[in-house]
Design brief:
Length: about 110
Amino acid sequence: MKPILLFKYQVPHQWQTCAEGMLKKFNWQPRTHLSTVSEVKQIDDDTISFYRRHESTNWFGHTWEQVTINRVTKEVKSEILAANSDMSTQCVERTLIAEGKDGKAELSA
């Protein structure tokens, strides 16, 4: 399914800085939020993937985020997953961070 909206940004930071930011994204979260890393797996020598669970007092239920980091293609993919009524999942939001031609990061959301 094609996205309804697609935003593209040029980020003034190196790709490594953006990848590190995805790993540390919730280190300084407010007290009303809780996020935990539930599963980490190494897909191959250059790719890792992990699931992060989000809970908050501001909304009912919880969400999941799957983050995949590939250091060969220099891509970070973040997908917010939601449960359907039949307990299957769907991707609600996808963010892709890739290295641009000038070495700076490019973000698509």
